[in-house]
Amino acid sequence: MARFAHTVTVAALDRGWFEEAADALVDLLDASREGPGGTVVLADGRAVEGLRLLKGRHLRPGARYGEVPAAREGAGTDAEAADGPAALASGTGDSPAVPQAVVLRAWRPSHSVEVESLVVEEGMSLKLGLRLSGPRRPRAVELSLAGHQPGGGSLYRFSGRGKADLAAWWAAVDRLPTAPPAARPPASGRAVHRLAKARLTLTPRPAEDGSWRITVALSVRGRWLLRPVGAVVLFFARGPLERGLREAAESAAAEWNTALAELTPLHGEALRAEIADALVNPDGPKAL
Q1: pLDDT in tens, 163-217
Q2: What is the rounded CA–CA span in Å between residue 165 and residue 185?
Q3: First-to-last CA distance in the chain?
Q4: DSSP for 174-205?
Q5: How far apart are CA 125 and CA 105, in angstroms?
Q6: Burial (0-12, 13-18, 19+ Cβ within 10 Å), 104
Q7: What residues form DSSP beta bridges with 119?
Q8: 163 DSSP 8-state letter
C-alpha cells in the first residue's frame, strides 16, 4: 500500500453564515413552482436560469430535470427546439458533458434531500448520487459514483462513495490550535476498481490566525492477486501520484480561498435576495 499526504491552509468558513445561507436556499427552492414550458419559477415570478422540469411533478420524488443549453449563434427555431427538453431527455445535444438528467429522489427540507445525476462524457456513463441530511442546517453530505464504459468489460468499471460529517467537521475546527487533530477524519471517500482500491481523507484543524489547516491523505493498494503487481506499479508511480495530490490540493485550496474572498457578507433578507439573484442570473455582476 502507498500513502501520500499534503497539508494546505484555507480561509475559514463561518458556520452561522453557512447555515443561514443553506436555510435561505432551501426556502427559495421549496417555494418555487413549475412555470410555462417546464421552467422552475421562484415565488417572485423569476425563472431559475437554465433549468427545466422534463418529467414528473416539481419537487416530488422521481421529478426529472434537465439543463437548458445556451442557444447557438445563428440558430433558428428548429435548432432551438432540437436542443430543448426533449433532446435533453433523450441524451442528444452538442456537449457530451451536459447531464442527461438530474432526478430528484427525495425532497424533505426538514430531513433530507437526495438527487441523482446521469452523465455521459467521453464514452463513459456516469451515475452520481448526492444526499444532504438536514438541508436547513446541514449535518452530513454523502456522495456516490458509479461509472462504466458500455461494452468495455470490468476494467472499465469503477465505483466510489464519500461522506462529510459536518457536525464532526465543525467540532474539529472549533478545537484549540494546540489540541491534537480529530481521531477520525470528518470527511472521507473510497474508490474501487478491479485492479486497486483508494481512500481519501480530509482532516481539518484550526490555525493560530483563525484559518484552517487541512491534511489531505490518499492511500492506494492493489486488489486480490494483483497486489504484488500493484506494489511494483505504485513504487514507480509514487512520484507522479504524490505530485498530483499536492497540486490538486493546492489548486482546490486556492479556488476555495478565492471563492470565500468574493462572498458578500450579507444576512437576513439581503442574503436571501442575493441567493435568489444568483439562481436567476448566475453570471450576473454580484457574487453569492
Answers
A1: 999 999 999 999 988 888 888 999 999 999 877 889 999 999 999 999 999 999 9
A2: 9
A3: 42
A4: TS-TTSPPPSS-SEEEEEEESSEEEEEEEEEE
A5: 20
A6: buried
A7: 126
A8: E
- How confident is the model over 54-105, as pLDDT tens digits? 999 999 999 999 875 544 434 444 434 444 444 444 444 444 444 578 999 9
d(CA 251, CA 237): 21
The cell numbers describing 60, all together, are: 416530488
Helix segments in the chain, DSSP class H: 15-30, 77-82, 85-90, 166-173, 227-262, 268-280
Instruction: Please give the Cα distance from 178 to 55 (Å, whole number).
Output: 54
Q: Where are the beta strands (DSSP E) in 58-156?
A: 64-67, 101-108, 112-121, 124-133, 140-148
State the Cα–Cα distance between residues 61 and 25, nearest whole angstrom: 19
C-alpha cell of residue 54: 422534463
267 is written with which cell numbers?
444576512
Q: Please tell me the total number of residues recorded for the chain in this structure.
A: 288
- Which grid cell sits at 227? 497486489
| Residue 42 C-alpha from the chain's centroid | 23
Q: Nearest to residue 245, comparing CAs of 214, 204, 203, 216?
A: 216
Tell me whether strands 212-222 and 2-10 are parallel, antiparallel or unpaired.
antiparallel
CA–CA distance, 86 with 88 (Å, rounded to integer): 5
Beta pairing class for 196-206 and 140-148 = unpaired
